[in-house]
Structure formats: C-alpha cells, structure tokens
C-alpha cells in the first residue's frame, strides 16, 4: 500500500510539473534572449547609414502586440546603441525605443517600435529598432 501511495504521489508531482511547463506565459523565467540595436538613419554624400544611439530607452511589454498599459521592463542602450533582455519565456513581446536628440539646444523625441516572437524556449532573437 505504501508503494502505491508513493507511486501516486510521484505521478501527481510529475503531472503538476508538466502542466506548469506547458502553461508558461511570456515574461521572465525562460532561456530566451532578445538583443538588438537602436539606430537612426542618415543619408549623406557617402550613402545611407545607420548610427547606433547611446542612452536610448527601450521598453518591453510581455505578451502584447502593442504598447498597452505600463511596460513590464526597460533598459538603456550602451555606447553603440545595443540592448538586451534575457531569461525570457517563449511568446510575443513588444518593444518601444525612445531617444531624446539634442539638436542645437532643442530636444526632439524620436521613437521606434518592434514586435518580437520567441518561438522556442532558448531562442535568441536579434532586432534593429529605427527611431524617427
């Protein structure tokens, strides 16, 4: 009888863990990774250029296709415009970048967005967000 109770207990634990693993929602807790660059497009005599923007703010919404409500997290870009969000579950993510450009003493807010889908538990997604 003790063996039967132990086996039933183990079966219940394994079932519970399996249900939890299948019901993951977008957000922190997985091995997914979003990294990218916030850029500004420039045209000059040398052609088209994308310049990485330092100190841009990147907001992320978990499980959303747009910027509804408050963001779930945010980060600031490094000196070359790079950013990353780590340890994400699979699912939909919405990114919004904003950059304050000081153009001859006048601050101009530039913005850009991207929608990202992590399709597997450990997928790494690279994205470029162009601000205008």
Portion of residues within helices? 10-25%
Task: Count every helix, treating DSSP H or I runs of 4 or more residues as helices.
Answer: 1
CATH superfamily: Immunoglobulins
Instruction: Could you tell me the CATH topology label.
Output: Immunoglobulin-like
Calculate the mean pLDDT score and round it.
86
- The total domain count is 1
Reported CATH architecture: Sandwich
Distance between the termini: 70 Å
Derived from helix and strand composition plus strand pairing, the structural class reads alpha+beta
Q: Cα-atom Rg, whole angstroms?
A: 21 Å
Q: Characterize the largest beta sheet: strand count, sense, and whether it forms a barrel.
A: 4 strands, mixed
CATH class: Mainly Beta
* Strands, count: 8
Order of helices and strands: HEEEEEEEE
């Amino acid at each position: 009888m003790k063996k039967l109770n132990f086996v039933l207990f183990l079966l219940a634990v394994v079932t519970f863990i399996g249900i939890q693993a299948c019901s993951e929602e977008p957000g922190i807790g997985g091995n997914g990774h979003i990294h990218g660059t916030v850029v500004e497009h420039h045209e000059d005599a040398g052609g088209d250029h994308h310049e990485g923007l330092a100190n841009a703010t990147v907001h992320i919404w978990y499980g959303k296709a747009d910027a509804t409500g408050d963001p779930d997290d945010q980060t600031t870009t490094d000196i070359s415009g790079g950013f990353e969000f780590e340890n994400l579950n699979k699912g939909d993510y919405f990114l919004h970048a904003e950059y304050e450009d000081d153009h001859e003493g006048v601050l101009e807010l530039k913005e850009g967005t991207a929608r990202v889908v992590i399709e597997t538990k450990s997928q790494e997604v690279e994205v470029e967000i162009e601000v205008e």
